[in-house]
Protein backbone atom coordinates (compact mmCIF):
# COMPACT_ATOMS: atom_id res chain seq x y z
CA UNK A 1 0.00 0.00 0.00
CA UNK A 2 2.78 2.43 0.94
CA UNK A 3 4.79 2.17 -2.32
CA UNK A 4 1.61 2.27 -4.45
CA UNK A 5 0.26 5.38 -2.72
CA UNK A 6 3.59 7.19 -2.91
CA UNK A 7 3.98 6.27 -6.60
CA UNK A 8 0.48 7.46 -7.53
CA UNK A 9 0.88 10.65 -5.50
CA UNK A 10 3.96 11.61 -7.50
CA UNK A 11 2.57 10.52 -10.87
CA UNK A 12 -0.91 12.05 -10.73
CA UNK A 13 -0.98 15.82 -10.47
CA UNK A 14 -4.22 17.64 -9.61
CA UNK A 15 -5.62 20.46 -11.72
CA UNK A 16 -7.14 22.23 -8.72
CA UNK A 17 -5.88 23.07 -5.27
CA UNK A 18 -6.84 20.41 -2.72
CA UNK A 19 -6.90 20.98 1.03
CA UNK A 20 -5.90 18.04 3.18
CA UNK A 21 -5.56 16.89 6.77
CA UNK A 22 -3.55 13.82 7.79
CA UNK A 23 -4.51 11.80 10.86
CA UNK A 24 -2.20 8.97 11.91
CA UNK A 25 -3.15 6.03 14.13
CA UNK A 26 -0.55 3.94 15.95
CA UNK A 27 1.07 3.06 19.24
CA UNK A 28 3.89 4.85 21.00
CA UNK A 29 5.16 1.42 22.02
CA UNK A 30 6.83 1.34 18.60
CA UNK A 31 9.73 3.54 17.54
CA UNK A 32 8.16 4.47 14.20
CA UNK A 33 4.92 5.74 15.80
CA UNK A 34 2.65 6.94 12.97
CA UNK A 35 5.63 6.80 10.62
CA UNK A 36 3.53 6.44 7.47
CA UNK A 37 1.28 9.37 8.43
CA UNK A 38 4.37 11.54 8.97
CA UNK A 39 5.73 10.47 5.59
CA UNK A 40 2.41 11.16 3.79
CA UNK A 41 2.12 14.58 5.43
CA UNK A 42 5.62 15.44 4.21
CA UNK A 43 4.93 14.17 0.68
CA UNK A 44 1.71 16.17 0.41
CA UNK A 45 3.46 19.32 1.62
CA UNK A 46 5.80 18.98 -1.37
CA UNK A 47 2.96 19.00 -3.93
CA UNK A 48 2.16 22.41 -5.42
CA UNK A 49 -1.55 21.52 -5.60
CA UNK A 50 -1.88 20.43 -1.94
CA UNK A 51 -2.66 22.84 0.88
CA UNK A 52 -2.59 21.76 4.52
CA UNK A 53 -5.89 22.40 6.33
CA UNK A 54 -4.56 21.34 9.75
CA UNK A 55 -1.23 20.30 11.21
CA UNK A 56 -0.49 16.57 11.35
CA UNK A 57 -2.53 14.83 14.07
CA UNK A 58 -1.57 11.52 15.64
CA UNK A 59 -3.71 9.17 17.74
CA UNK A 60 -2.09 6.83 20.25
CA UNK A 61 -3.62 3.44 21.11
CA UNK A 62 -7.06 4.24 19.66
CA UNK A 63 -7.52 7.22 21.99
CA UNK A 64 -11.01 8.58 21.37
CA UNK A 65 -10.11 11.79 23.21
CA UNK A 66 -7.19 12.45 20.85
CA UNK A 67 -9.26 11.64 17.77
CA UNK A 68 -12.11 13.94 18.79
CA UNK A 69 -9.61 16.74 19.40
CA UNK A 70 -8.81 16.47 15.68
CA UNK A 71 -12.55 16.21 14.84
CA UNK A 72 -13.23 19.49 16.71
CA UNK A 73 -10.48 21.33 14.84
CA UNK A 74 -11.57 19.80 11.51
CA UNK A 75 -15.18 20.90 12.06
CA UNK A 76 -14.09 24.38 13.10
CA UNK A 77 -11.74 24.90 10.13
CA UNK A 78 -13.86 23.33 7.38
CA UNK A 79 -17.39 24.09 8.67
CA UNK A 80 -18.10 20.38 7.99
CA UNK A 81 -19.43 19.03 11.30
CA UNK A 82 -18.16 15.79 12.79
CA UNK A 83 -19.47 14.39 16.07
CA UNK A 84 -17.04 15.25 18.87
CA UNK A 85 -18.23 13.13 21.81
CA UNK A 86 -15.35 10.70 22.58
CA UNK A 87 -17.74 7.94 23.71
CA UNK A 88 -19.30 7.92 20.23
CA UNK A 89 -16.09 6.38 18.88
CA UNK A 90 -15.71 3.87 21.69
CA UNK A 91 -15.58 0.20 20.76
CA UNK A 92 -18.38 -0.41 23.29
CA UNK A 93 -21.61 0.66 21.62
CA UNK A 94 -24.47 1.37 24.06
CA UNK A 95 -27.55 -0.73 23.48
CA UNK A 96 -30.73 0.78 22.08
CA UNK A 97 -33.37 1.74 24.64
CA UNK A 98 -37.12 2.02 24.21
CA UNK A 99 -38.42 5.54 24.77
CA UNK A 100 -41.94 6.90 24.84
CA UNK A 101 -43.03 10.27 23.47
CA UNK A 102 -44.58 12.05 26.46
CA UNK A 103 -44.76 15.53 25.00
CA UNK A 104 -44.43 17.35 21.70
CA UNK A 105 -45.00 20.93 20.62
CA UNK A 106 -46.33 21.85 17.20
CA UNK A 107 -44.72 24.24 14.73
CA UNK A 108 -46.21 27.73 15.00
CA UNK A 109 -46.36 30.21 12.08
CA UNK A 110 -43.13 30.42 10.10
CA UNK A 111 -41.05 29.04 12.98
CA UNK A 112 -39.86 25.59 11.97
CA UNK A 113 -38.66 24.59 15.44
CA UNK A 114 -40.43 22.21 17.82
CA UNK A 115 -39.84 20.30 21.06
CA UNK A 116 -39.97 16.57 21.68
CA UNK A 117 -39.97 15.07 25.18
CA UNK A 118 -39.03 11.41 25.55
CA UNK A 119 -39.16 9.19 28.63
CA UNK A 120 -36.92 6.08 28.64
CA UNK A 121 -38.86 2.94 29.55
CA UNK A 122 -35.97 1.66 31.68
CA UNK A 123 -33.52 3.30 34.06
CA UNK A 124 -30.95 5.17 31.97
CA UNK A 125 -28.36 7.60 33.27
CA UNK A 126 -27.90 10.78 31.25
CA UNK A 127 -27.13 14.46 31.67
CA UNK A 128 -27.90 17.66 29.82
CA UNK A 129 -25.29 17.97 27.09
CA UNK A 130 -25.30 14.25 26.24
CA UNK A 131 -26.43 13.16 22.78
CA UNK A 132 -29.38 11.10 21.62
CA UNK A 133 -28.83 8.93 18.55
CA UNK A 134 -32.01 8.08 16.64
CA UNK A 135 -32.48 5.72 13.69
CA UNK A 136 -35.19 7.17 11.40
CA UNK A 137 -35.09 4.31 8.90
CA UNK A 138 -34.48 1.56 11.46
CA UNK A 139 -31.04 0.87 10.02
CA UNK A 140 -27.45 2.05 10.64
CA UNK A 141 -28.16 5.68 9.68
CA UNK A 142 -27.86 7.74 12.87
CA UNK A 143 -28.93 11.29 13.58
CA UNK A 144 -27.70 13.06 16.73
CA UNK A 145 -29.47 15.60 18.95
CA UNK A 146 -28.28 17.43 22.08
CA UNK A 147 -30.17 16.43 25.19
CA UNK A 148 -31.68 18.73 27.77
CA UNK A 149 -32.64 16.83 30.93
CA UNK A 150 -35.91 18.27 32.21
CA UNK A 151 -37.93 16.53 34.96
CA UNK A 152 -35.89 13.34 34.41
CA UNK A 153 -37.01 13.24 30.76
CA UNK A 154 -35.12 13.86 27.53
CA UNK A 155 -36.03 17.17 25.91
CA UNK A 156 -34.99 17.85 22.32
CA UNK A 157 -35.32 21.14 20.46
CA UNK A 158 -35.45 20.35 16.75
CA UNK A 159 -35.48 22.42 13.57
CA UNK A 160 -37.58 20.82 10.84
CA UNK A 161 -35.60 20.69 7.59
CA UNK A 162 -37.20 20.09 4.22
CA UNK A 163 -36.64 16.40 3.42
CA UNK A 164 -34.70 16.13 6.71
CA UNK A 165 -34.34 12.48 7.66
CA UNK A 166 -33.98 12.96 11.44
CA UNK A 167 -36.10 16.09 11.93
CA UNK A 168 -38.88 14.73 9.73
CA UNK A 169 -38.94 11.47 11.70
CA UNK A 170 -39.17 13.31 15.03
CA UNK A 171 -41.83 15.69 13.72
CA UNK A 172 -44.07 12.80 12.67
CA UNK A 173 -43.99 11.20 16.12
CA UNK A 174 -47.23 11.08 18.10
CA UNK A 175 -47.70 11.16 21.87
CA UNK A 176 -47.36 7.72 23.51
CA UNK A 177 -45.53 6.39 20.45
CA UNK A 178 -42.37 4.38 21.23
CA UNK A 179 -39.02 4.59 19.48
CA UNK A 180 -35.65 2.93 19.97
CA UNK A 181 -32.63 5.18 20.48
CA UNK A 182 -29.33 5.28 22.33
CA UNK A 183 -27.79 7.84 24.64
CA UNK A 184 -24.20 8.85 24.00
CA UNK A 185 -22.25 10.27 26.91
CA UNK A 186 -20.78 13.66 26.06
CA UNK A 187 -18.88 14.45 29.26
CA UNK A 188 -16.84 17.20 27.57
CA UNK A 189 -20.04 19.25 27.34
CA UNK A 190 -21.49 18.75 30.79
CA UNK A 191 -22.08 21.67 33.16
CA UNK A 192 -18.68 22.28 34.84
CA UNK A 193 -18.45 21.02 38.41
CA UNK A 194 -17.52 23.52 41.12
CA UNK A 195 -17.44 26.40 38.61
CA UNK A 196 -17.85 29.87 40.12
CA UNK A 197 -19.33 31.24 36.88
CA UNK A 198 -20.61 29.77 33.61
CA UNK A 199 -21.69 31.75 30.55
CA UNK A 200 -23.82 29.85 28.01
CA UNK A 201 -24.09 31.02 24.40
CA UNK A 202 -26.55 29.48 21.94
CA UNK A 203 -28.38 30.10 18.73
CA UNK A 204 -31.41 28.27 17.39
CA UNK A 205 -31.78 24.70 18.63
CA UNK A 206 -28.46 24.98 20.47
CA UNK A 207 -30.45 26.19 23.47
CA UNK A 208 -31.66 22.62 24.20
CA UNK A 209 -28.91 21.37 26.58
CA UNK A 210 -28.77 24.73 28.37
CA UNK A 211 -32.46 24.54 29.30
CA UNK A 212 -31.73 21.27 31.05
CA UNK A 213 -28.55 22.53 32.71
CA UNK A 214 -30.40 25.52 34.16
CA UNK A 215 -33.20 23.24 35.38
CA UNK A 216 -30.61 21.07 37.20
CA UNK A 217 -28.76 24.06 38.66
CA UNK A 218 -28.32 24.27 42.44
CA UNK A 219 -27.87 28.04 42.39
CA UNK A 220 -24.26 27.88 43.64
CA UNK A 221 -22.83 28.92 40.26
CA UNK A 222 -23.39 32.29 38.61
CA UNK A 223 -25.00 31.31 35.31
CA UNK A 224 -25.67 33.58 32.33
CA UNK A 225 -27.56 32.64 29.17
CA UNK A 226 -27.05 34.45 25.85
CA UNK A 227 -29.24 33.39 22.90
CA UNK A 228 -29.60 34.43 19.29
CA UNK A 229 -32.75 33.84 17.22
CA UNK A 230 -34.16 35.25 14.00
CA UNK A 231 -37.45 36.64 15.32
CA UNK A 232 -39.46 37.00 18.47
CA UNK A 233 -42.23 34.38 18.49
CA UNK A 234 -44.20 32.06 20.74
CA UNK A 235 -41.18 29.82 21.27
CA UNK A 236 -38.83 32.64 22.31
CA UNK A 237 -41.53 34.06 24.59
CA UNK A 238 -41.60 30.64 26.31
CA UNK A 239 -37.82 30.77 26.69
CA UNK A 240 -38.11 34.24 28.25
CA UNK A 241 -40.72 32.98 30.72
CA UNK A 242 -38.53 29.95 31.57
CA UNK A 243 -35.50 32.20 32.09
CA UNK A 244 -37.29 34.73 34.30
CA UNK A 245 -38.79 31.97 36.45
CA UNK A 246 -35.32 30.48 36.99
CA UNK A 247 -33.87 33.91 37.78
CA UNK A 248 -36.48 34.12 40.56
CA UNK A 249 -35.41 30.67 41.81
CA UNK A 250 -31.74 31.73 41.80
CA UNK A 251 -30.78 29.16 39.19
CA UNK A 252 -30.02 31.76 36.50
CA UNK A 253 -28.20 35.07 36.98
CA UNK A 254 -29.00 36.81 33.69
CA UNK A 255 -30.77 36.17 30.38
CA UNK A 256 -29.90 37.99 27.14
CA UNK A 257 -31.66 37.75 23.77
CA UNK A 258 -30.66 38.92 20.28
CA UNK A 259 -32.98 38.88 17.24
CA UNK A 260 -31.35 39.13 13.81
CA UNK A 261 -34.55 39.70 11.77
CA UNK A 262 -36.31 42.24 13.96
CA UNK A 263 -36.27 46.03 13.53
CA UNK A 264 -33.28 46.50 15.86
CA UNK A 265 -31.24 43.68 14.35
CA UNK A 266 -28.69 42.09 16.67
CA UNK A 267 -26.63 38.94 16.71
CA UNK A 268 -25.41 37.10 19.79
CA UNK A 269 -21.87 38.41 19.02
CA UNK A 270 -23.19 41.95 19.53
CA UNK A 271 -24.28 40.98 23.03
CA UNK A 272 -20.85 39.50 23.74
CA UNK A 273 -19.21 42.78 22.66
CA UNK A 274 -21.70 44.77 24.72
CA UNK A 275 -20.86 42.75 27.85
CA UNK A 276 -17.13 42.49 27.13
CA UNK A 277 -16.15 43.08 30.76
CA UNK A 278 -18.27 40.16 31.97
CA UNK A 279 -16.70 37.74 29.48
CA UNK A 280 -13.06 38.75 29.91
CA UNK A 281 -13.29 39.01 33.69
CA UNK A 282 -15.01 35.62 33.91
CA UNK A 283 -12.28 33.92 31.86
CA UNK A 284 -9.56 35.67 33.86
CA UNK A 285 -11.15 34.44 37.11
CA UNK A 286 -11.45 30.81 35.99
CA UNK A 287 -15.01 30.94 34.63
CA UNK A 288 -16.29 28.81 31.76
CA UNK A 289 -17.91 29.69 28.44
CA UNK A 290 -20.14 27.07 26.79
CA UNK A 291 -21.14 27.44 23.12
CA UNK A 292 -23.85 25.36 21.42
CA UNK A 293 -25.46 25.85 18.02
CA UNK A 294 -24.24 26.50 14.49
CA UNK A 295 -20.54 26.29 13.60
CA UNK A 296 -20.82 29.70 11.93
CA UNK A 297 -21.99 31.21 15.23
CA UNK A 298 -19.13 29.50 17.07
CA UNK A 299 -16.64 31.05 14.61
CA UNK A 300 -18.11 34.52 15.06
CA UNK A 301 -18.32 34.28 18.85
CA UNK A 302 -14.78 32.96 19.22
CA UNK A 303 -13.42 35.64 16.88
CA UNK A 304 -15.17 38.25 19.04
CA UNK A 305 -13.74 36.74 22.23
CA UNK A 306 -10.24 36.72 20.73
CA UNK A 307 -10.50 40.45 19.96
CA UNK A 308 -11.80 41.23 23.45
CA UNK A 309 -8.94 39.29 25.03
CA UNK A 310 -6.36 41.16 22.93
CA UNK A 311 -7.73 44.45 24.27
CA UNK A 312 -7.04 43.10 27.77
CA UNK A 313 -3.56 41.84 26.76
CA UNK A 314 -4.75 38.27 27.29
CA UNK A 315 -4.40 35.23 25.04
CA UNK A 316 -7.74 33.58 24.27
CA UNK A 317 -6.02 30.34 23.20
CA UNK A 318 -4.68 29.92 26.74
CA UNK A 319 -8.25 29.74 28.05
CA UNK A 320 -9.07 27.13 25.40
CA UNK A 321 -6.07 25.02 26.40
CA UNK A 322 -7.16 25.35 30.04
CA UNK A 323 -10.52 23.79 29.10
CA UNK A 324 -12.52 26.92 29.90
CA UNK A 325 -14.16 27.02 26.44
CA UNK A 326 -16.61 24.14 25.93
CA UNK A 327 -18.25 23.72 22.51
CA UNK A 328 -20.84 21.45 20.91
CA UNK A 329 -21.56 22.95 17.49
CA UNK A 330 -22.75 21.55 14.19
Could you list some keywords that capture this structure?
five-stranded parallel sheet; globular; 16 strands
For the biggest sheet, the summary is: 7 strands, antiparallel
The total count of strands amounts to 16
Helix content: 25-40%
Oligomeric state of the chains in view = single chain
Radius of gyration: 22 Å
Instruction: Strand order, main sheet: write it out.
Output: 8-7-11-5-6-10-9
Determine the number of helices (DSSP H or I, runs of at least 4 residues).
10
Mass-distribution shape = globular
What series of H and E elements makes up the topology?
A: HEEHEEHEEEEEEHEEHEHEHHEHHE
Distance, first to last CA? 34 Å
User: What's the mean pLDDT score?
Assistant: 93
Strand content: 25-35%
Which regions have little confidence, pLDDT < 50, spanning 5+ residues? none
Structural class assignment: alpha/beta
Give a short synopsis of this structure.
With about 325 residues, the protein is an alpha/beta fold.
Q: Can you describe this structure?
A:
The protein is α/β, with parallel strands linked by helices and 330 residues long. 33% of the residues lie in helices and 26% in strands. Strands 8-7-11-5-6-10-9 form a 7-stranded antiparallel beta sheet. It is globular.
Topology:
Blueprint: H1 2-11, E1 18-20, E2 23-26, H2 35-45, E3 50-52, E4 57-60, H3 64-78, E5 97-104, E6 113-120, E7 131-134, E8 143-146, E9 148-150, E10 153-159, H4 165-172, E11 178-184, E12 197-203, H5 208-216, E13 222-229, H6 234-249, E14 254-259, H7 268-274, H8 276-284, E15 288-293, H9 295-311, H10 316-321, E16 325-329
Parallel strand pairs: 1-3, 2-4, 12-13, 12-15, 13-14, 15-16
Antiparallel strand pairs: 5-6, 5-11, 6-10, 7-8, 7-11, 9-10
Helix pairs in contact: 7-9
Amino acid sequence: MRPTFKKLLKEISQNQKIKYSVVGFGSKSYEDFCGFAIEVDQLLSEQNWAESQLELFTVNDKSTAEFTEWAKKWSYETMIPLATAPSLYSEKVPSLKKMKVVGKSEIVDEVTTFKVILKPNSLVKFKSGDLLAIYPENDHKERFYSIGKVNAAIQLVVKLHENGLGSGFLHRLKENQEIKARIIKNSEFHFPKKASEVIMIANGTGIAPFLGMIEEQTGKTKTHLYCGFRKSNELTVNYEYFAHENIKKGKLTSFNLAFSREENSQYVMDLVERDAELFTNSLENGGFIMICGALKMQHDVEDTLRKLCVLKNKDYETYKVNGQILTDCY
